[in-house]
Amino acid sequence: MAQAASGPQAAGAAARRIDLAELAEHALAIADDRGWNGVALREVAKRAGLSLAALYRHCPSKWALIRAYARRIDDQVADSIEPEDLEEPARDRLFEVLMNRFDALGDHKPAIRSILDCTLRDPGQAFGGYTQLRRSMTRMLEAADISTSGVRGELRINGLGGVYLLALRTWLDDDSADLSKTMAALDGYLRRVERPAEVLEGRERARDVVRDAVKDSPVGRGLSRMVTAGGGDDASGPVIEGAATEVPDPPGADPRDDGAGGGGPLDDPRRGPGSAAVH
């Protein structure tokens, strides 16, 4: 009959069964009450029924627990996506993915707030947090069936990371049962980056995006009111593009100058005809 393993072999087997994500749950439960700075690995080991030496073999620091917890959240979000969700437009897929992430994080909101505060005060930890953020945003894009390869992939990862952090600020203060404030904020942030992303993908012209941005700006709306007050037919916004109108020459202008040669306001006579002055 084979004898049960004992001594160092048994200790090694026990160490191999350590689940860092489960240990992270213990750490976050402590941080919910005391903040992240109040978490000690010795207490985490005690709650998990482990010796500190056994914990250290797989977990050299508290941030190793955070990375394990983030990976578990990434897996939960990926598993929550249904095949029919991938038939929706890209913005709707990303909205679903990030809201699922916020739902998964909901059990430890005080701890996450404390972790973010500690990260912002420590540049070294902030770099580690940024690295983990990129990993998680890569997983979120892939869960939404959006490519993360190449230059465009890098832009998507960084862009989604910015959207997520902005929405996370709202989520931390959102006390509504259905996270309605978070949903509204996330939808707004995704809409802001949608059209620039369309330009990067080559599906929309940059000039059209700029034109509409001007049209919707306070200056654009003011021009629209001026056009409407003056009897214009188009009350929907300012005239961005239109037919050229003839402008009379100012007094003293040379009627023979058709603009092809020098003499214009951007021409410097010291640099010869047709050369633009740069100031």
UniProtKB/TrEMBL annotation:
Record-annotated DNA-binding residue ranges:
40-59
Keywords annotated in UniProt:
DNA-binding, Transcription, Transcription regulation
Q: Which organism is it from?
A: Rhodovibrio sodomensis
What name does UniProt use for this protein? Answer: HTH tetR-type domain-containing protein
Q: What residue range is the signal peptide?
A: none
- Give start and end of each HTH tetR-type domain: 17-77
Q: Which Pfam families match?
A: TetR_N
Reading the lineage from the top rank, the first entry is Bacteria
Cross-referenced Gene3D superfamilies: Tetracycline Repressor, domain 2 (1.10.357.10)
Q: Where is this region: Disordered?
A: 221-279
